[in-house]
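Technical annex B. To support the medicinal chemistry partners, we prepared a structural model of the target in complex with adenosine-5'-triphosphate, based solely on the information shown next.
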Amino acid sequence: MDTGTKSPAPGGRKDGTSGSGPRPPVPGLPVDDVFAALDTSWRGLPGERARDRLEKHGANELPRAGRRTMWRQLGAQFTDLFAVVLIVASGITFLAYALEEPRDAGTVQLAVAILGVVVLNAAIGFAQEYSAERTAQALEAMVPHACRVLRDGERLELPARDVVPGDVVLLEAGDAVPADCRVVEAHELAVNNAPLTGESNAVGRTVDPVAAVPLLEARNCVFMGTDVVAGGGRAVVFATGAATEFGRICRLAAAAPRQKTPLQLQVASMARRVAGAALAIGALMFAVRLPTGDSVVTLFVFALGVMVALVPEGLPATLSVSLSIGVRRMARRHALIKQLLAVEALGSTTVVCTDKTGTLTQAEMTVTQVWTGGASHSVSGVGYEPSGEVADAAEVRELLRVAGLCCNARLVPPTGPREHWRVLGDTTEGALLVVAAKAGLDPGAEEAAAPRVTEFPFDSGRKLMTTVHRTGAGYQACVKGAPGELLARCTDVEWDGRRGPLTGTDRAAAVAAGDELASQGLRVLAVARRALDGPRPVREEAESALTLLGLVGMLDPPRPEVTDAVAACRRAGIRVVMVTGDHPLTGEAVARRVGIVRRPDPVVVTGARLDAMDDETLDSLLAEPSELLLCRVSPEHKMRVVTAFQRRGGVVAVTGDGANDAPALKHADIGVAMGASGTDVAREAASMVLLDDSFASIATAVRLGRAVYQNIRKFLVYLFSHNIGELVPILAATFAGFPLVPISAVQILAIDLGSDVLPALALGAEPPESDVMDRPPRSRHERLFSTAVVGRILFLGGIQAACVSAVFFWHVGSLGIPFDDFTEDTLAYQEAITMVQAGIVLSQFFNALTVRTDRQSVLTVGLTTNPALLAAGGFGIALMAAISYLPPLQAVFNTAPLDATDWAVLAGLGTLPLLADEARKAWLRRRADRRRGGPR
Ligand SMILES: Nc1ncnc2c1ncn2[C@@H]1O[C@H](COP(=O)(O)OP(=O)(O)OP(=O)(O)O)[C@@H](O)[C@H]1O
């Protein structure tokens, strides 16, 4: 059919394959006419024509909806609550300056400084949002979105963006439909059109032409943005990119609101509360300083300054930095976070339900045993290279021929000297093709001799797959699957030179052989066939009265890195539960190898036993602290177990790769999909995607997730402790009857903006503490501002406040000048306020070092292991020196030069919070050791 003639261009308005005008007539055409209309054929497009079409129609991508322009993003920074409050505050200060008699330059400086806060905050916020968005885009691009198409008869795997009208797409359960297509071949094909129609039940697809109906209702079409949920088939693309129905809807859709995570909400609400408190404290300051006799305007400006200084403006931005650094670190370690929520949940994960194949193991299957009745045959060779030996027996060849015919995977030879043989498709099937090749069988030739006429695809609920072939002697069903499921459908055997009914002894022998292979950790499949009368049997017919040919056992070695990761999870108080569709013996053998099972008596629960259990029994089973394996389970069981763990208050991470894992992935606190081998549906449903599929990456993500939370607490303690250091001296001076403030509002702003922002950001980027995985998971209900956090803020802030107050009073008192004689211009006063400011800056430098660890000594992590923090602290000190020594800055801040002794005293006092905190940590460590029964 592929004439190669230049018929009306597919995708153009004439044949309606694209554009927003008349919809394509393809649903009404018989299959052959569809190919003609789209100028393509069953063999797919020739490569050159596909390239032309890609050029003509552009990439199969949707224009990004809902992205704000840079200007709008920047503008938004000035309209959030804090910014508005600050802008109003600055306006009032300017007004106060205008009304003041005589005018004080300090007032206008304060007004400008407040505006400076707004601009700086906006800049940080904007930079953060911008980089977070860039990160999100980069991460999105890392999630593979490939599809299988036929081009010139050749089966290829292409990025979905390269698909063009006329491409023949191969569809399987779990695939995301890459473009709008007309179905030309369907094997129990069903899709979920929910993204387009809102109805989330599976709808079957046919190949028959349909009468004129709205395109979305055409049962012979599949659409971009939807998923194949069952069966498989082929379809021809008729619209791509923005021309698809999905593209049309996306154009109509308004920008989705950005969702904030509970942590962000917690911080935002806390920041609001602190702002309220700042307002109250500002009012309090106004009230307490009223007796000093200052003018109302002066007092008002001062109170406003204090209030502005106390507002934690930088907090939300620092939080975003911390989260986005966490996300980037995880991506570097192969864990892509799709929803920020997962970062938080990871930190409090209590249970990980993990698949076996690919996650704990390498998913590099090699058939090592073939069992045919009385005889067991070893197979040599490793990996997917089809070289090795297998017994040259007719019954082995027949078993492998049938198994090979019942496969959709394809072996791809290496293209370069450093490459290896690869499998395109299911690795279990890849292993079967390899062993068939080792037996001298050529899949192409076998398929040509017995072309496939229909297929009942594998699904993990049924655990079987069947293909029907036309042979010289009629039709034949080739069936492979889990031995238990397949044996139940067999009535005959053909092995050991015997062909006849399957006896009780045969059955027992097959079960024993299967168990023996499984207990070696091998994945076991049984293979059978039957003769059929016609090409299109119903499934029950094709999968009954089968003749059993034997079993194959395939090895899938554990991933070497998993054992350590499992041990780390154990230490971190996280329970690892294996959930597999495989045989209990295979599951247990693998679980033992990776350390999930260490005791002799693990609890192995099969899907059948789960079915027989009510929720109460299941709950009490999960409550036992046993080593638990769930074997021969289907995705529905997985969902039930996740829900049961959650009922018990667990925070559950669950892995999944198949389309029917989607509900469990969505329901879990952290749905983890496989980037390399998983289906598109699973990846869409998940909140985290593992690029390397390895369990070890989950453990790493948990570690980094815990670190993010810890870091947030670190900078909270850091940022809030200096507020105490600023407020207490002011209150003390007022109550002591000192007529001036020990630290002015502009000085407070200089600390907030000059010396505190950068170290807070550097704390948000701290690497995980080495003992982060030696503690139990954080309770999901634990507040960010826990008693421990507030206690530490008061502890560190209190010491700092005591030190700087002492410095102030010592300095103003040592000269014997009466308090009432002090004016703003008294040198001793200028020196004293400079010392208070420098005292806080130095103390904050040491504070930053001490908050780096919760319980460990700072010396254990090393004083220089966060160079960014040292640089940020160093910058703050240099700025302070400039404020003390440079005349223009002295004029602004009313400061005076400090001498070396002053600096030395301040530095000495600044270390006090650090030393006191070290003593507190040592006490905590000793207490923990005592609880554990002696030091470790
Ligand atoms: N492509 C296939 N065709 C037929 N049978 C298969 C196929 N793949 C697996 N099986 C059989 O079905 C059983 C369950 O496989 P399934 O892929 O559902 O397990 P799973 O839950 O993904 O396992 P795992 O936990 O190892 O990832 C296997 O033990 C095997 O006997």
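Notes passed to the chemistry partners:
The longest helix spans residues 695-735.
DSSP finds 32 helices and 26 strands in the chain.
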